[in-house]
Amino acid sequence: QVQVVESGGGSVQAGGSLILSCDSSATISETAAMAWYRQAPRTVREPVALLNYDNITWIEDSVKGRFSLSRAHAKNTVYLQMNSLKPEDTAVYYCNLVLRKNTADYWGQGTQVTVSS
Question: For 17-52, what is each residue's pLDDT tens digit?
Fold first, then answer.
């Protein structure tokens, strides 16, 4: 069973920054992609950013220019750098990992991000 663990959430004021980390027990070679999703209260979970391990990156329009993705070189960890945070970024942020061999995907438990005005 692949483990996916998010960390780095918290509470910040508008305009602040946070870095979320997503660690996985799957190796880099086993991984096809890792993505961040978020879910605000009473809404559906929506994608925010994705890193395909063939080095294709996608960032959702509402966070483009404020959020960025990066990957550690020596371990299977993906970071979501979030700058200029807005109250509407408040949500539980989830990491999703997709395996190369069978495209099975795995979710972390989520980490809360709260942005106050």
Answer: 999 999 999 999 999 999 999 999 999 999 999 999
- Amino acid code (one letter) for 113: V
The dihedrals phi and psi of 47, each to the nearest 5 degrees, come to: -75, 145
Listed residue (11, 4, 1) closest to 82, CA to CA = 11
Nearest to 69 by CA among 60, 84, 57: 57
CA distances from 77 to 32, 82, 101, 117 (A): 13, 16, 19, 31
- Output the six-digit token pair for 41: 């209260």
Rounded CA-CA distance 113/95 in Å is 13
What is the DSSP secondary structure assignment for residue 65, as one 8-state letter?
T
Report the alpha-carbon distance of residue 2 to residue 9 in Å, rounded. Answer: 22
What is the 3-state composition of the chain as percent helix, strand, coil, each rounded to the nearest 5?
Answer: 5, 55, 40
